[in-house]
Amino acid sequence: MEGRGGLRLSVCLLIAAAGCQHQVMTLPSSTPLSPSVGVPDPSQIKTTPAKPKELSPAVLVSYGDFEAGEAFAARTGPERRQQLCESARLDYEKALAIDPKYVPAYQGLARLYMALRDLPLAVENYQKAVKLAPTHAALWYELGLCYNYQKNWGPALECLDRAVRIEPGNRSYVNTLGVVLAEVGRYEDSLKCFVRCNGEALGYYRLAQTLRHLQKPELSQRYLEVALQKDPSLAPPIQQTAYPLQQTAYQPAVPHAPKSSPCSPAEEHTVNETPSRFPSPPAIPASNPSAPPQLLLPPVPLINDSEE
Question: Tens of pLDDT along 205-227?
């Protein structure tokens, strides 16, 4: 009995061993990949060209203009504004390091300092710009505005008059000159500027508006009444604005002022109102509520280096 049991056990072990051998699977041998499949040829890979290490002055000024515009956007917070202003300043200075005679960089710096109310530095950069490009009216115009913010009336009038002489058909320049002449009390000369580019009736009305902002209501009323005498159709539009007509007992009279004027004689000119391709500098808020309002005028074009 014991012999039969051992025989049976031996047969079962043999059968089990044979079954395991049939279940073994042989893996296929790995073959090397073909060089033409899967792995690209390194010589055929196209590399992306790296950015130039040194940007041109024109590109740097474009970066600076963009950053300055973003800095003074309404949505920009104080900390971000400071960062953008510093970045813009560095871009303008890098442009000047490459080309010390690149006028747009001086103008960009001057506009930035003007927006930051650092007027001495703004004047310094505008002066460098006009020295390099004395025939560009926009530079004289902006330098005149900068002097006007400083209440430096003499240089302001000289610069604005220079801009008007270079571009006598620019209405913004002529109107601004009229405003500054009124600020220094040269009302007759101011009136000539306003009449020159607005017509007689509107010229009187422009001067009346300016005098009202300068806290001279009685004198403003006189010029307003003359404007209405010359063109009664102005009455309805004026009444619709925040400019109430006052009832006065005196007869309309225009005060006398010095006859000299820095403006050239009134002539017919073609008005150049081409919109600016660049952002204008941010408006500078008046620190003193009683001070005359700042000149809110259309933007002027920056100097194009291709014009030099």
Answer: 999 999 999 999 999 999 999 99
Q: How far apart are CA 187 and CA 202, in angstroms?
A: 15
Record the tokens describing residue 186, joined without a space. Answer: 């040269």
Kindly report, residue by residue over 141-168, the tens digit of the pLDDT.
Answer: 999 999 999 999 999 999 999 999 999 9
Full DSSP string of 228-248? HHH-GGGHHHHHHTT-PPPP-
User: Cα–Cα distance between 10 and 143 in angstroms, integer?
Assistant: 113
| CA–centroid distance for 295 within its chain | 16
Contact 180, 160 (CB under 8 A): yes
- Match 């992306």 to its residue by tokens: 48
Could you give the C-alpha distances from 71 to 46, 65, 153, 278, 285, in angstroms and in order? 39, 10, 30, 15, 16
Q: Please say whether the beta carbons of 105 and 60 come within 8 A.
A: yes
**Predicted model pTM:** 0.64
The owner of tokens 């050239």 is 264
pLDDT band at 54 (very low <50, low <70, confident <90, very high): confident
Cα separation, 190 vs 87, whole angstroms: 41
| Distance, C-alpha 97 to centroid of its chain | 22
- How far are the Cα atoms of 2, 211, 236 from residue 10, in angstroms, in the given order? 12, 126, 125
* Domains and their CATH numbers in the chain: 53-133 (1.25.40.10)
* CA torsion through residues 104, 109, 110, 111, sign: positive
**pLDDT: which is higher, 27 or 169:** 169
- Cβ count near 272 (within 10 Å): 14
Structure tokens at 147: 């002097």
Name which of 194, 128, 183, 172 is nearest 150 in CA terms.
Answer: 183
